[in-house]
Automatic annotation (TrEMBL):
<dbReference type="GO" id="GO:0004850">
    <property type="term" value="F:uridine phosphorylase activity"/>
</dbReference>
<dbReference type="GO" id="GO:0005829">
    <property type="term" value="C:cytosol"/>
</dbReference>
<dbReference type="InterPro" id="IPR000845">
    <property type="entry name" value="Nucleoside_phosphorylase_d"/>
</dbReference>
<protein>
    <submittedName>
        <fullName>Uridine phosphorylase 1-like</fullName>
    </submittedName>
</protein>
<dbReference type="Pfam" id="PF01048">
    <property type="entry name" value="PNP_UDP_1"/>
</dbReference>
<dbReference type="GO" id="GO:0006218">
    <property type="term" value="P:uridine catabolic process"/>
</dbReference>
<dbReference type="InterPro" id="IPR035994">
    <property type="entry name" value="Nucleoside_phosphorylase_sf"/>
</dbReference>
<feature type="domain" description="Nucleoside phosphorylase">
    <location>
        <begin position="2"/>
        <end position="97"/>
    </location>
</feature>
Length: 103
């Protein structure tokens, strides 16, 4: 799910401005989860809008770093985060390879 910002739109409690309580945050995140949402970010709508305006096909691949129902802070070790960073690159690489071999 793409939101307009990192804090309020994602139900975070650790921003400079916060109108949510912990209870509000949990209700918001549980409703999102029940709707099938497994990742929240804030950049893809701008990328999609720009690509659409230019007539460029585009896709967004996201990595989920933590379970927001359990907390907001990333505590994974550097090695795990480095592996997460490689996953979308490998996925997109395989997709491109498959498309090229089918052509």
């Amino acid at each position: 799910m793409c939101t307009l910002d990192f804090y309020e739109g994602q139900g975070r409690l650790d921003g400079a401005l916060c109108s949510y309580t912990e209870k509000d945050k949990q209700q918001y995140l549980r409703a999102a989860y029940e709707a099938g949402i497994r990742n929240i970010e804030m950049e893809s709508s701008v990328l999609a809008a720009m690509c659409n305006a230019c007539g460029l096909p585009a896709a967004v691949v996201c990595v989920t770093l933590l379970d927001r129902l359990e907390g907001d802070q990333i505590s994974s070790p550097h090695e795990v985060l480095a592996e997460y960073q490689q996953r979308p690159q490998r996925l997109v690489g395989r997709f491109i390879k498959k498309c090229l071999s089918a052509a």
